[in-house]
Amino acid sequence: MSGCGDLRLGSESKTGNSVRATRTIAAMTAVALVLGTPGAAWAESISGALARAYANNPDLNQQRAAVRATDENMPRATSGYRPRVSASADAGFLNNDTKIPGFGSQNSQTNPRGYGVSITQNLWNGNRTINGVRQAESSILLARETLRNTEQTVLQNGATSYMNVLRDTAILNLRRNNITVLEEQLRQTKDRFNVGEVTRTDVAQAESSLATARSDFFVAQSNLQNSIASFRQVIGVEPKKLEAARPIENLLPRTLDQAISNAFVEHPLVQAALHNVDVAAANVKMVEGELLPTVGVTGAVNKRFDPSGSTQNYQTLSASVVGSISVPLYEGGETYARVRQAKELVGQARLQADLQRDAVRATVVSSWGALQTAKAVIQSAQAAVNAAEIALNGVREEAKVGQRTTLDVLNAQQVLLNTRVSLVTAQRDRVVASYLVMAATGRLSSSHLKLQVANYNPTVHFDQVKDKWIGLRTPDGR
């Protein structure tokens, strides 16, 4: 009996060492996924994934299309400086039946026809064209800032989904490995129960822990599938062999005050709000211009072929140049109401700009705090993992000599697992928070991240269309 006991203890010690080694390796692998240990050459990096999102994300591409559409506001506004040309032509049939008392009747059939060209040039319209051009410029700049904010959102979501996949993959591996350990624990407990060293209660406790571990594994599996779906939505491809990722703290401001100052100057939502104020102010000037005179000139040339009676070759050619001035006197008060309304909208836009500054400041402070918290949690979690590993080894050794129960071993294993999960989560949070801080300061862009991708330049399309006088096709040929 003692020999069997010695063999069993030796086997348990050997198995325990193997299990501990396996768990340590799995934990190191999981932590490496988030810490940023260099991966294999074929693994996709976070920079590569963000470059995919920058080039192919539908939300980002539709916003680029919106900016291109807004660019057309400029030629629309500048059309007020250009002449308007129109041509007209007419042709008809005229039957004339005339009866004159004492002279009988006369009948004639003619084909009157003609054509003409007219040119109208606006000379002054209360500066509505000038202010319309200014409004178009501000609206285009606003659209570009909206595009920049969309770019930040897409890149931030891409980094978050990338890290979520790494985190959930690591947690799934930890859960899977925990099942393996608990299965071995259950087997050993049953062996000890068969030789009378433990009771049925110990077996039930081991079985309960294994069942809970399997349940946690399925939850982790579901979480990973959700993260993969989010990754596919943002990046555009399925995540395969993702490389490690590190925080981008070297690109961030050194202090919180500096981060707030940068955000007030560079954040796209703040800049968009300021451009919106300019759009509203230009609209006030445009509506006020409707109360001012309009001066223009019209030139026309007309050729008529109007034969009548015996004059079959009757032709006329006329040309005219007419200057005009229109002075609005009173339009029922509608224009005055729109001026007052436009001024109130300017006030609203200014308040929205102040509100946006406050919102951006709050985001900077919140994200900065999240980053600092993640750093502190990593240190605490690492210390907790080290302590939990020592505690588990001690509990196992004490259980061998009967000083600890099976429940004590299971509890120690669960504590170690939880601390490892907390460490992985904190490491993920640190990377995500670093991207969040960069977005909050307004600098999360492909150029600042130095992504290997062709940067989209909205001014290219603007330069192609701003001076176009004619043409139905877009610059890309549609």
Brief write-up:
The chain has 478 residues and is an alpha+beta fold.
Fourth-level CATH superfamily of the largest domain? Outer membrane efflux proteins (OEP)
What percent of residues adopt helix (DSSP H or I)? 55-70%
| Silhouette | elongated
Distance between the termini: 89 Å
* Name of the CATH architecture of the largest domain: Up-down Bundle
Largest sheet: 4 strands, antiparallel
Count of DSSP strands: 6
Unreliable stretches covering 5 or more consecutive residues = 1-41
Rg over CA atoms: 39 Å
Instruction: Determine and state the CATH class of the largest domain.
Output: Mainly Alpha
Count, helices: 12
Predict the CATH topology of the largest domain.
Outer membrane efflux proteins (OEP)
Please indicate the percent range of residues in DSSP E strands (runs of 2 or more): 5-15%
- Order the strands across the largest sheet as they lie in space: 1-4-5-6
What's the number of structural domains? Answer: 2
Give the SSE string. HHHHEEEEHHHHEEHHHH
Mean pLDDT: 86
Structural class: alpha+beta
